[in-house]
Amino acid sequence: MKLLAYLRSLVSTLFHRNHEESELDEELRSHIQRHADDLERSGLPRAEAERRARIAFGGYERVKEECREERAGSRLESLWRDMSFGVRMLYKNPGFTAVAVITLALGIGANAAIFSIVRGVLLRPLTNRDEARLLYLRQSVIGADDVAFSVPEIKDLGTGLKTITELGTLSQLDFTVVGLGEPREISAGVADGNYFDVMGLKPTLGRLLTPNDDGPNAPGAVVLTHRFWTTSLHSDPSVIGKTIRVGSFEGTRSAVIVGVVEPSVPYPVETQLIANIVTSPHHLSATMVQGREHRMTEVFARLAPSATLDSARAELQTVYSGMLTAHPETYKANDHYQLTVTRMHEQINSRANTILWVLFAASGLLFVIACSNVANLFLARVVRREPELCLRAALGASTGVLRRSLLAEALVLCGTGLLAGVLIATPMVTVLGRYAARFSVRAVGLTLDSSMLWIGVALAAIAAVFFAFVPRLPAGDGSRGLGLSSSSARVAGGSRGRQRVFAVTQITASFLLLAGAGALLRTLLVLEKTQPPFETAHVLAVNLPTMTDGRTPEQVRDFYRNVQHRIASVPGVEHVSSGFSVPWRDSRALGIQFSFAIESAPRENGQDDPRARFRSISPGFFETLGLPILQGRDFDDRDRDGAERVVIISQSVAKQLFPGQDPVNRRLRWTDPVMRFIGISYEPRRIIAVVPDMDDEDLIPSAAMTVYQPSDQEWVNCRLFVRTKNDPYALVPAITREVHEIAADQPVERPSTFDDIRSEVMTPDRLNAVVFGGFASLALLISVIGVAGVLAFSVSGRTREFGIRQALGARPNDILADVLREGFIIAAIGVVTGITVGYVCARALAKYITEVQTPGVLPLLASAILILAAALIASAIPAARAARVDAVQALRSE
Amino acid sequence: MTPQADLLPGTLDLLILKAVSLGSPHGYGILLRIQQISGGALLIEQGALYPALFRLVRQGFLKASWGTSDNNRRAKYYELTSAGRKQLREQEDGWNRLVAAMRLVLGARTEEV
Q1: CA dist A471 → A394, A413, A493, A782 (Å)
Q2: Domains of chain B, residue spans
């Protein structure tokens, strides 16, 4: 019954509105008429009777409004009415609407996009089964905090563990693969039979490696990664069962492709295939199996069902300490060997973490700026609409009703902003995803997260409520002389203060973003300005992966000598040489450092041998790069295997170890224990020359202690360096042809000039600067509009003041300066707040993140000047308007 | 003139139901009837009457229809629904109990305690 009555009321409210309205009106009128009739009967004239009846009845419109509210569905209906009113109001102010919607869309869109990335990269669980139980082990020593393990170490660590079900191991190697299309060099992993089980991965096709694939007698087996299979092999299912030849630096083996592993995050390196141990002769060699310091293996572990991360850490630490004590000759006390055990998930995120959270903070700031700006516009509009609001209040609209109509308008605005934000979020995710992919493999192919829509909705709702509740409204009683005619607005007084607060907030946030972007930009500029001390534009680096298949080391060396010889005669080639690593590109090879000692220099007690970068080069390397030889001679044909062993040292080695002496013809020898595993002898070597320092590892050169060996005596070179007269890339076909004439199946890969390699390495820095610079310029633009808006508003409210001042003799310039000063002060307060907030935040963050860099003075100063200048320009327009105020007109308008 | 009493909150609805049950068909009549019965002691703000009537209709205690009044004016007539009659009875009982209790308490003397 009650429900029925409610529904009837609801239906008539929603569908018979006009009818209902006229009935309400009629009912109330008839009440007043009757009362008037009674009063007339008691002797009053009709007119007076009607007047008294109306007075006795009270506020007619207010009663009507109260009646409407008592009807069912009145809230719904009035919200709907308010919204359509809001839409009309916004439609009538296209400028305001456009600025507000665009600002909100940028704020909401950026946040939604960044949230998608953060969620996809940091928060989403890995595909690996039970990923929270997957651990990653690492050790560190003084001077190197990221060291892999050797096979004896893994044996020591992995036996008899209670908190760990199994260890899985993987080591990365470059394989030259023959039998999958063109011969090519690919990045491969060599794994033991437990690896896939520990990682918790399933096959997409075929099978994965099992303990049956372990041991020296198992047949070679290869599992392809999903990415390699889909991108390079076009998801061809017939590759399963195919036999291929895989070659690494100690020989070539055949292997059968047994399966494709499901898509998963490759860590720590991306590999194209994962093979069993028998495919790499090196993994079966004594070097690998017995060399305690031959560390090239990654160790993963799976937590036992009952164990916790802490208990596993404790147990592994105990075992590790036991191992350190058992081999004091390897683990010297002052090297401080340490074991770290982390969850795989956290390990993968470690690099992306800081960057993404910083981005998140940046987009948060952008949102604050956007909201402050729209709040300002909203405030200004409410003040401008004051007469209308006062009128409504006087006619009986309560504060709640007015607030509701503001809320409806804000909702319409934020809803539109949300829609636009979602539209721009999609391309933003694509761009930012590509950016994030540089820090985390998980960002590859990331798309817009549908749950980010809810973030957008939440942000829009917060913003709408904020906008609706910020303006002060005229009081409903209308008693305190709220003039409709007077322009000395009471509302304006309070709002102007709030507007300043928002303007300062915007400036603060933009300053923070700008300072951050400035710091990144400076890093980039320093990088770009720093030129390496050798020729980069005309030197081409080409990878010629070693093909050891059935060839002796001497034959391999002959091949490379032959190649160099033939390419040297190609027209346009100025010089050719070879080496083991391409500057900036081959980071693994470039990282090789060995300890050494010089003869006849007694080692000081307790001091470690110095370490130097190890570089293997052919004769003519320095000439190709345009580096002068400071003293002595270059390597030449005399320096072959079997001849006297010779080296060339860099200037900093000479300076540090032979201060004030002539290093040429002195001797040095390697002392590093690793040497014995990689076939480099400990024999003394004569220094034949000194060359300038050449840092081929870092973009900002530092003093590089480097020792060069001729590749003809030891080691093998697989990188070709060609200096050309003109465009180096034009010679690539000719070079490839020459190589293939000697060996048809020799891969010729990744030809690139040093210049291009350098800019490739710089890309993350450039992207950082571009992304943050983009954020900062958006922020700056929005806040400049904000400051201009605040001042324009303040000027229009002070017309009378300016008029009086002019009447009293103030010059237009005084007024101009006054407004400019106001803008400047807002910006200055913002900048000072920004510096304070930035300082406090940096201090607070420093507790959690070690690598917080405070931007130097220069970026701070530059951002401050930029903001102040922008604020002054923004103030100029309203200031000019203020100065043009005509005294007579301003006073008459009162 | 009789001293006027403030209306206790929530009592307006009850008064309206009672007035309608006594045969006051429209808004103005209800107002007059309440003033008349209470001897002018209960002052009802005219404007407050109509929102209350709308509320009672929404709650299903009153039913409204349009008709022609004695002096040929169109008027909105209210009548009790069965739910309204029940509500009136319950509220009356509640009030009577409250009044009796209040009277007992207020009429108490020291020796009776």
Answers
A1: 18, 16, 11, 21
A2: 11-112
